[in-house]
Amino acid sequence: MAPGTARPQQEDLIRRLRTLEAEGDIETVDLYVTGDCVCESTAAAATDTGQFLLNRFERFGAWASEFGVDLVGFRDRCVDSTLTRTTVTGHQFPRIAVAVFDDDDLVLVTPCAENDAQHSVAELVTTLESVSDSAGEQDLSA
Fold first, then answer.
1. By C-alpha distance, which of 128, 40, 130 is closest to 89?
2. Which Pfam families match (predicted)?
């Protein structure tokens, strides 16, 4: 999970999302821990979780391209293995991200940036809390 400096913020956001779920303001909150990165060429990538995360990374990138936004904190990085003495490319997720789905349709991914504005996970959660009575139910994955 997050280092000590980010952990309180991360835990607060998760608690707030769980409260929205418990109150019925959003349909579901699903949490996934990604680790440092997901490398396509490793055995871990062949697992159900690895395939799920690789699919989400690709899907988030396609969403960003379609809507002309930049995903913040999502990046490809090279990882050196001292054990195998090889370098592999991995997909890195930000410390915390939220993807909003309406049924199976991806509606929003945060953090993201468009033009000169950045949209954070905290900003999204605050917006969900402020409009929860009128927003209807959303299927939410965090």
1. 40
2. HTH_63 (PF20575)
Nearest to 123 by CA among 114, 22, 28: 114
For residues 100 and 26, what is the distance between their CA atoms, to the nearest angstrom? 10
Residues 71 and 88: their CA atoms lie apart, in Å, by 22
132 φ, ψ (degrees, to nearest 5): -60, -35
H helices of the chain, where? 7-22, 48-67, 121-130, 132-135
* Cβ atoms of 26 and 138 closer than 8 Å: yes
Mean pLDDT by 10 residues, the chain (142 residues): 70 94 92 86 89 96 97 90 81 94 94 94 93 56 48
Q: What is the pTM of this model?
A: 0.82
Rg (CA), the chain: 16
- Can you tell me which residue has the tokens 């349909």? 27
Is the C-alpha dihedral spanning 127, 132, 138, 140 positive or negative? positive
Angle subtended at Cα 116 by Cα 114 and Cα 122, rounded to the nearest 5 degrees: 70
